[in-house]
Amino acid sequence: MNSIILRIAARQLLPILMVLSLFILFRGHNAPGGGFIGGLIASSAFILYAIAFGHRSAEEKIKIEPGVFMALGLLLALGSGIPSFLKNEAFVTHEFFKFHIPVLGKMIISTPLIFDIGVFFVVFGVLLTIVFTLMEE
Amino acid sequence: MIYIILSSFVFSFTAPFIHRIFKKYSHWVIFLLPLGIFTYFISYLPRICTTECEVFTFSYPWIKSLGIQLSFYLDGLSMIFALIITGVGMMVIFYSGAYFRGHPQHGRFYLYILIFMGSMLGVVMAENLITIFVFWELTSLSSYLLIGFNHEKEESRKAALQALLVTGLGGLALLAGFILTGIAGGTYSIVSLLDSGDIIRNHTLYLPALALVLTGAFTKSAQVPFHFWLPSAMQAPTPVSTYLHSATMVKAGIYLLARFNPIMGNTLEWNYLITIAGVTTMLVGALMALYQTDLKKLLAYTTVSALGMLVLLLGIGTTLAIKAAMVFLMVHALYKGALFMIVGAVDHSTGTRDVTELSGLMRVMPFIGIAAAFSGLSMSGFPPLLGFVGKELIYEAHLHAPNAAISLMTASIIGNAVNVTVAIMVGIFPFWGKTSATAKKSHPVEFAFWIGPFLMALCGVVLGIMPNSIAMPLISPAVTAIKAQTILVELKTWHGFTMVFMLSVLTVALGIGFFHFRDKFREFAPRLKFLIPISPSRIYDYLLKGMLRFADLQTRFLQNGKLRYYLITIILVTVSMVCTQLIRMKGLPVSISFSGLQFYEAGLVLVMLMATIMAMLTPSRMAAVASLGVIGFGVAMIYVLFGAPDLALTQFLVETLTVIIFVLVIYHLPYFQEFSSTKSRIRDAIVAFLAGSLMTILILTARHVQIAQQISTYFSENSAPLAHGRDIVNVILVDFRAIDTMGEITVLSIAAIGVYALIKLKPKKEKSK
After folding, report:
1. Separation between Cα atoms, residue B5 and residue B11, nearest integer Å
2. Do B727 and A28 touch (CB under 8 A)?
3. With a threshold of 0.80, does the pTM exceed it?
4. Which of A94, A108, A109, A110 to probe the B interface (max B CBs under 10 A)?
5. Over 60: is that where the pLDDT of B765 sits?
6. C-alpha gyration radius of chain B
7. Nearest 5°: phi and psi at A108?
8. ipTM value
């Protein structure tokens, strides 16, 4: 598509939308958001870019094939269940680890977050795979 | 104990590699496993056969919630079977080294046969009904692989499938029978069931359970009318026939009957059903054996007959009969196993199994000839071989049978006489007399071919002279286990010139007479076909064909490949089912009130309705998609208004992306055209209307129906303390219902791969166009 407005908008919006999607992903546990929505936003950023510049330049922009994100996401989601085995609990019983980092303060690393990142990746990978495949035709 | 049974499964998978390393010496290595297990069981022998017969149990929890344990135990009955399984297994595996020499799939044979051996051991040692069933099915499956070993041949595949279907069907009946037994006895544990025999026999479920268990046992042990799979299974390579179809698998049914004797036995139904099946099978097997000319078929039909004899003995059920059954079990395993291996060697060397073409093989293969002679003599029951001991016991058991002693005796004499005839045909006749043309062309056989049968025949001789050496250690504990009371057995070779001995002489004379008229039987047999208007194997064929045709029809009807019919089917089935239920409940309260309706809500609904009408009426695809998008956004707005920000966010994004994907797809489609006729459009409209109204009614009534306690309070109360999250929707997604989510993202990925495959992977033909 040769609209100059669309091109400039898409180029400027891409990083903003990506940051937004990450923001939505991480706030998800306590406020509306999460991996699914974050993944949708991230993929729409690239879909917008693909509509403006063609799917090939979008694919080059990501550098990694979208299918890889799918696999990675599934692995992350599955892997987040593994710590539960160590505690001899039911599969995907989530764990929370609290850290105190000197300057930043309290931080919680939890398996639900890993799970959510997995969901994010899967949604991102699935949508881009579908859309890029369709655009290629 | 569990390691012993599992070892053959584990070892089986390494067997092909072992074969690759040791090549033509692999049988020397592989046969060490059954030898080891055999020795292991022998080491338990002295402890099992003290006057107070000991029972060893080994239990591992498996499915706790169903009361199923992976438990094994070893008593006299298990012991005799386990020794036969590993003993014959050892011989067969060693023998296969010669039989399959140079065969490209020899390694695979080891794999299958070891799996089979493990399953068989599992069956005879399982302490839990469900465990028995699992191993029982494993034997069926591995026998399928073994019978179909020469899978390039169509007859092999057919025979394998037949055996699998018949025994598999029996297996299902068995499972049902086991469950009924479990309900009646209140436990699946055999040790506990053994004590509650009276409860089960007086339970209302006794008869159905008995019928089902017997069906399972009869299919496995090739009893009439399920006998036909056994002769067909002779398509298998000879080592397989030796192992499965004479010594072990077909005896699984016998094992089951023996094992269930204290649980279900000693009732009129038990005795009658089993005796009748046994007698019929024995006679049918014997008569059909008479006119065969193929060595393997001869052995197969006499095996059917021998299985009938074993079942008959268990049916009589007296201590004498059980004793006879256990001795005959050993006798039969020894001579029939040996004869099968001999036939394999003859076949391998001469290239034929036709009795009429074989004679004078003694000069070519002396050891095989000697083994054949002794096995044949044992089979026909000549003193002082073990077969003689067995036959004397059988006749004695018949003489003292509580009912119908004379007719059972007559049937049994006929059956045994045929055994004599077949023994002469297989064990004696091919090896003596003039050297036939085929024998001249044949080559001598190697060590691994004759050592197995030779040793087994030797066992028959030695044990025949000293039968008491197995009486105390083996037969007594087995009879004790079956009768559930301590019984000491004594065996003697020579009883003197008794009534029983006279009957033995009569049998041999009759057998030689049959042999003399063998050509007459072969001529006459085809003329007797009219007696059986339809044979069980034909019924099997018809059933199989009918089932395939039915499957074909229903698949074509249901899987017609048109999406719209699938949708119509799904929708109509749902609507009719829900409606039936609604009518049965005489409707549900529906209340409609418009109080509290805000003007912007009404406006939103109005927009959505207009978009719906637009989507239906517009002549442009783009407009239709956009209208659907409007509806979606409307739904998202409703989420916003009713406080579901997570859902609303998702809905907005999904709607946007759906429209984009729609557009991408539609872009390739031809211009909007009307393909469907008015008729089908009306039909579609009716279906759509039905579905829509049903959903409306359901939504209106849903408010008034409380089926289960609402779960949302639990989530909202526990989301923060348990899952450290305040956004309930997200906590449900990633924590409370994480496995559901995992399933969903997997489905998503599969869908993406599907789209990719549909578009990118085209058949090569189309590409070249």
Report:
1. 10
2. yes
3. no
4. A94
5. no
6. 35
7. -115, 125
8. 0.88
